[in-house]
C-alpha cells in the first residue's frame, strides 16, 4: 500500500513538474512572439525611414544641381572663366554674397494675390496673413511644416495687397511647395520662388531673348523653371 502511495506521489510530482515546464515554455513562447512583433514593427519603421531618406536624397540632388547651375550662371554674368584674369576681391565678394543669398532664398517662397486685411494693428494683419498662408500651404502640401517667418514685401498700402514672403527652415519645404504650386485652386493667387535682384534680371533677359527668337520663327522654345 505504501508503495502505491509513494508511486502516486511521484506521479503527481512528475505531472506538476511537467505542468510547470509547459507553463514556462508557454511564457517563453509568448516572449518570443512579443519580440517578433517588436522586430517586425522596427523593420517596418526602418523601411519607412529608408523611403523618407531616399526622397530627401532625391530632393537634395535637385538642390545641388540647381546651386551648380546658379554658380555657373554667376560666373558667366561676372565674366569669370578659366581663361580670364583672376577676379578682384570686390568681384569675388559680390559673387560669394550672391551665391549665399541664393542658398538662403531657396528656403523661401513668394505668394501674390492674397488680400491684405485693413487692420490698423500691424500684429493683427500679420496673424491674419499667417492663418491664410497655413491654409494655402496645407492644401497644396499636406505635410508642410509651420513657416519660420511670414512678411509682406513693400510699404503698406490699404488699397493694394502686397506680395507675401514665406520663410521655412529648409529648402526642401520650399521646393515641395513650388513643385505642387499648380494644385492651388484660388483665383488670382500665384506662388513663385524667392529670387535675388540678379536672378530677376537674368529672367527678364531670358524672357526678352525668348520673345526675340520666337519672332524669328523659333516657336519650340521655353524657359525652364528652376
TrEMBL record:
Superkingdom assignment: Eukaryota
Keyword Coiled coil tagged: yes
Coiled-coil positions: 15-56
Keyword terms of this UniProt record: Coiled coil
Protein name (record): RRM domain-containing protein
Species of origin: Leptidea sinapis
Amino acid at each position: 500500500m505504501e508503495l502505491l502511495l509513494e508511486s502516486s506521489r511521484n506521479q503527481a510530482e512528475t505531472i506538476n513538474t511537467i505542468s510547470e515546464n509547459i507553463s514556462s515554455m508557454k511564457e517563453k513562447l509568448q516572449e518570443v512572439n512579443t519580440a517578433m512583433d517588436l522586430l517586425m514593427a522596427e523593420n517596418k519603421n526602418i523601411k519607412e525611414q529608408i523611403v523618407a531618406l531616399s526622397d530627401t536624397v532625391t530632393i537634395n540632388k535637385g538642390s545641388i544641381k540647381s546651386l551648380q547651375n546658379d554658380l555657373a550662371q554667376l560666373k558667366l554674368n561676372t565674366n569669370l572663366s578659366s581663361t580670364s584674369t583672376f577676379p578682384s576681391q570686390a568681384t569675388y565678394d559680390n559673387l560669394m554674397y550672391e551665391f549665399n543669398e541664393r542658398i538662403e532664398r531657396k528656403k523661401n517662397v513668394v505668394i501674390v494675390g492674397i488680400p491684405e486685411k485693413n487692420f490698423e494693428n500691424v500684429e493683427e494683419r500679420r496673424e491674419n496673413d499667417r492663418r491664410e498662408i497655413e491654409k494655402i500651404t496645407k492644401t497644396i502640401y499636406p505635410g508642410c511644416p509651420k513657416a519660420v517667418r511670414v512678411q509682406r514685401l513693400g510699404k503698406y498700402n490699404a488699397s493694394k495687397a502686397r506680395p507675401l514672403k514665406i520663410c521655412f527652415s529648409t529648402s526642401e519645404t520650399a521646393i515641395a511647395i513650388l513643385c505642387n504650386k499648380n494644385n492651388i485652386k484660388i483665383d488670382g493667387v500665384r506662388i513663385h520662388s524667392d529670387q535675388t535682384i540678379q536672378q530677376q534680371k537674368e529672367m527678364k533677359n531670358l524672357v526678352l531673348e525668348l520673345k526675340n527668337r520666337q519672332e524669328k520663327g523659333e516657336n519650340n522654345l521655353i524657359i525652364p523653371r528652376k
